[in-house]
Amino acid sequence: MQHPLEFITFANRKRIFIALLVWTLGLFAVFRVLDQPLAPNGIVSFELAGTLERVTTILSSWSTQAKLYAAFGLGLDYLFMPSYAFTIALGVFLAMGRHKGWFAMLGAWIGWGSLAAALFDATENFALWHLLLNELIPVWPQLAFWCASFKFGLIAIGLIYALVGGILPRRRPEPVEGSR
Predict the structure, then answer these.
(1) How many domains does the chain have?
(2) Which is nearest to 158 in space by CA: 146, 168, 150?
């Protein structure tokens, strides 16, 4: 299996990764500001509520302004999704290039998983929009919970792979028989 970003030339990978990383961290900083009025744990508590009871508790604790922040954040998240997905996938690709064998093969799968995380995020946001619009039916918090859980899991796997692959020493080429 090929990594989804193999079309990016070797010469451009690091430069694109750094630009994406800076952009993604900038968007993440904006989300930190938007999360301030969203007690108890920002938008994540809403994403992982899982039940109508928890959702209604959260929504009733938010002011009108907090709900507007949440709505704006959900909209902005559609810009953030491809940003973090491609940043993580490219980080995985860079780490993958440092190694051979099963580790590199695993990186191709994890690269696709990083992009799948954004699809789970989009589906989760769809459910959260319905909840913010007071369409309080049990399927929305459950859908948001499971999509958020898969999203966070795939993001964590991608980040761990990229960090471990970047920290581990490069794998040396196998010695050729008879050359010592």
Answers:
(1) 1
(2) 150
Contact by Cβ (8 Å): 80, 124: no
Residues with Cβ within 8 Å of residue 149, at least 6 apart in sequence: 48
pTM: 0.90
Residue 5 lies in a domain: no
The secondary structure of 85-146 as a DSSP string is HHHHHHHHHHHHTT--HHHHHHHHHHHHHHHHHHHHHHHHHHHHHHHHTT---THHHHHHHH
Q: Residue 175: inside a domain, yes or no? A: no
Tens place of pLDDT per residue across the chain (180 aa): 899 999 999 899 999 999 999 999 999 999 999 999 997 789 999 999 999 999 999 999 999 999 999 999 999 999 999 999 999 999 999 999 999 899 999 999 999 999 999 999 999 999 999 999 999 999 999 999 999 999 999 999 999 999 999 998 876 555 555 444
In a domain, 155, yes or no: yes
Q: In degrees, to the nearest 5, what angle opens at C-alpha 170 toward C-alphas 90 and 11?
A: 45
> Distance between CA 89 and CA 91 in Å, rounded?
5
